[in-house]
Amino acid sequence: SSPIVGANTNAESTKENVISEDALCTDVEIGEDCIAKLENNAVLTINNINIHNCHITFTGTGNVVTTERINIGNDVTITMDKGVTLEAEKGIDVVEEASLTLDGEGTIIATGTGIQAGIGSGRKLKSCGTITINNGNITAIGGSNGSRFICVVVGGGGADISGGGYHGGRISINGGNVTAFGGGRNEMIPG
């Protein structure tokens, strides 16, 4: 079982899960609010994660590494404290009817593969949902094979945040430091 699953359904008593040493989790489903506290610069590696309709908070100091794309469904908020870095090695999918809010002072690095966006639509999606960035250090890198698509730095089709070669969703950047790179040979067009 996952050290970040098992939160109580009562939002006022959300369980804090402590990860004090390196851990590996596979096939993680998160559908309730929860807190994962990393200690001792622990590395939490997650293979295959689906997050839906919840608020997940990472606190403490350490790294969270996902080896497959993070799948976002419904309304999800991810908060990263200053000492925590999330490395989404294959990016973050936000399906058309979903919304993702990124918050906190931590770091998120999301890298798409193929024609996938770093954050937004992926190869199997036709368009992406709503993305809101309130704070944090966010880097989104589009996949390397998107040369036939136009890359728009924020929104649109083809690479970094939202596009992935399909229709971009609505993106709001309210704060934080956001860096987005188109993948491969994409043309960079400010948006």
Helical percentage:
under 10%
Q: Would you list the SSEs in sequence order as H and E? A: EEEEEEEEEEEEEEEE
Strand content: over 45%
| Annotation field: number of helices | 0
Span between termini: 42 Å
User: Cα-atom Rg, whole angstroms?
Assistant: 16 Å
Going by helix content, strand content and strand pairing, the class is mainly beta
How many strands, what sense, and barrel or not for the largest sheet? 14 strands, parallel
List how many beta strands DSSP finds.
Answer: 16
Mean of residue pLDDT?
79
Shape: globular
Catalogue the unreliable spans. 5-13, 146-160, 187-191
Structure, briefly:
The chain has strands at 16-19, 23-30, 34-66, 70-80, 84-88, 92-94, 99-103, 107-111, 119-120, 130-133, 137-141, 151-152, 161-162, 171-173, 177-181, 188-189.
Structural write-up:
The protein is mostly beta strands and 191 residues long. It contains no helices and 16 strands. The protein has strands at 16-19, 23-30, 34-66, 70-80, 84-88, 92-94, 99-103, 107-111, 119-120, 130-133, 137-141, 151-152, 161-162, 171-173, 177-181, 188-189.
Which keywords apply here?
191 residues, mainly beta, 16 strands, globular
Could you outline the blueprint of secondary structure elements for this entry?
Elements: E1 16-19, E2 23-30, E3 34-66, E4 70-80, E5 84-88, E6 92-94, E7 99-103, E8 107-111, E9 119-120, E10 130-133, E11 137-141, E12 151-152, E13 161-162, E14 171-173, E15 177-181, E16 188-189
Parallel strand pairs: 1-3, 2-3, 3-4, 3-5, 4-6, 4-7, 5-8, 6-9, 7-10, 8-11, 9-13, 10-14, 11-15, 12-16
